[in-house]
Amino acid sequence: MTAFVGTSGWQYASWRGDFYPKGLRQRDELDYLAARVNSIELNGSFYALQRPDSYRRWHDATSDEFVFALKGGRYLTHMLRLRDTDQAMANFFASGVLLLGDKLGPVLWQLPESLEFDADTLERFCASLPATAREAAHIARGHDSKVRHPYVPRVRNDRRVLHAIEPRHPSFGDADVAKIVRSHGVALVLADSAGTFPVFDEQTADFVYARLHGPEKLYAGGYDRRRLRTWARRCRDQADAGRTHRDLYVYFDNDSDGRAPYDALAMAELLGAPSPNDSR
């Protein structure tokens, strides 16, 4: 098992003068964090299509072994609600995503809490997800004018593209959910949301994806050592289920009080995540 542990994003005012030293330039914050954790979840891509030069800059600012998880666009999940997503999917992958190259980790699809489980909708959406970089590039060729600076590479060295889905409606506890996502190799996210949303603790892919949003209040507070050990054990149990060692991706989203980076560092130690300094 290889553990990739980090935070959801890195640009937060509450981190400045605390986790980030006073006077650190905002443009240096990614470099500072990426020197201490081996992965970060990119969340700007959730709110809007990013530009190729941004993906190129993020790629170049990190070490060779660094991995970015990438949050899929809310236009597909929250507005289209997983239906008729072909055009939006093409635009998403044409926006520069593949410039991350070997540093592209799982793509996270976070669902709105109001979205109920529908088997046909989930099946069609999972079937539409590209399983490789070559498939993603093929999909990207269908982009429209909403992508102002498209990047559609000719993929020579193909590689897998992983996907994880984070439902938030209780109806996703239906046994058919795990069957559907498992058939497409999509990971069902293990999430701690301070009791706000249900926990889906089902291993469905050959990797594990966990998101920790806060122990007692959503996006706030910090995890003490006892809670961190509990979640480390829970994540490791999924990664080692069936005597199969799966890569593990863990991201802290309790950013409002500035605790996320500290908790990520502590979790990385518990899980034995490789240090970014080892590859610099």
From TrEMBL:
Source organism, top-level taxon: Bacteria
InterPro entries attached to this UniProt entry: DUF72 (IPR002763), UPF0759_sf (IPR036520)
A Pfam family annotated for this UniProt entry: DUF72
Protein name stated in the entry: DUF72 domain-containing protein
Organism for this UniProt entry: Humibacter ginsenosidimutans
Taxonomic path: Bacteria, Bacillati, Actinomycetota, Actinomycetes, Micrococcales
